[in-house]
Amino acid sequence: MERLQKIIAQAGVASRRKAEQLIIDGKVTVNGKVISELGAKANPNKDKIEVSGVPIDKEEPTYYLLYKPSSVISSVKDDKGRKVVTDYIESTERIFPVGRLDYDTSGLLLLTNDGHLANQLMHPKFHVEKVYVAKVKGIPSKEELKQLQRGVKLEDGVTAPAKVKTLTIDKKKQTAIIQMTIFEGRNRQVRRMFDYIGFPVLKLKREQYSFLNLHGLNPGDSRPLKPIEVKRLKDLAVTKPS
């Protein structure tokens, strides 16, 4: 017997957190009976489990790396009819993005039907390194960039220390290309950090997620993760930060 939210997540229907909400909302049934308590358990091999009237089938875990283009939603559907990240991957499994990239941000995004791993990678206690390259308006000084390195106070708290490096500057256009490495996953974090020091982001790309990068890919391209890459991610997800 396993907790119901774990079974739903492992089936690729939703992340464990979203599965919990589905249970609370009364959208999950086991053998025809509505289950609305989070402590409920079921046998995934014997019980008939349905979410919103649709039976779940345990799928083989699937993992993809996508070079997300800008102007694409980090979701499996959009009520406004805009492009979503799953439009770029041909998969029979019900995959979903691990975290998100903003609509106007491009770069590396993971997609999977492994809700357990996705939850672990997104959990704040696991400091997954994420490398971004930002084109900003203006040319930040070394002291201004040191503020980002130390952490800045945003409305949702002080950011963890970041790694920051200036790649190029254009004095004529008054712009700069800055590489920033962060270890958190707050909403629009990189953009908000640059706004804090007075240098709005004009263009943003995530180039690396832990050991994974975009080498050999163009915007819109994707590839399945190699077994060794999946293993490294799982090892990363169970290793507590020092």
UniProtKB/TrEMBL annotation:
**SUPFAM superfamilies from the entry?**
Alpha-L RNA-binding motif, Pseudouridine synthase
What is the name of the protein in this document?
Pseudouridine synthase
Specify one Pfam family.
S4
Instruction: Give an example GO biological process.
Output: enzyme-directed rRNA pseudouridine synthesis
- Give the CDD domains listed for this entry: PseudoU_synth_RsuA_like, S4
Name the source's superkingdom: Bacteria
Q: Which UniProt keywords apply?
A: Isomerase, RNA-binding
The protein's Enzyme Commission number: 5.4.99.-
RNA-binding S4 domain location, by residue? Answer: 2-60
Q: Which organism is it from?
A: Alkalihalobacillus trypoxylicola
| GO cellular component terms, semicolon-separated | cytosol
Gene3D superfamilies membership = Alpha-L RNA-binding motif, Pseudouridine synthase I, catalytic domain, N-terminal subdomain, RNA-binding S4 domain
Extract the GO molecular function terms from the UniProt entry. Answer: RNA binding; rRNA pseudouridine synthase activity
Q: Matching InterPro entries, A to Z?
A: PsdUridine_s_RsuA/RluB/E/F_cat, PsdUridine_synth_cat_dom_sf, PsdUridine_synth_RsuA/RluA, PsdUridine_synth_RsuA/RluB/E/F, PsdUridine_synth_RsuA/RluB_CS, RsuA_PseudoU_synthase, S4_RNA-bd, S4_RNA-bd_sf
Q: Which family does it belong to?
A: Belongs to the pseudouridine synthase RsuA family.
What's its top-level EC category? isomerase
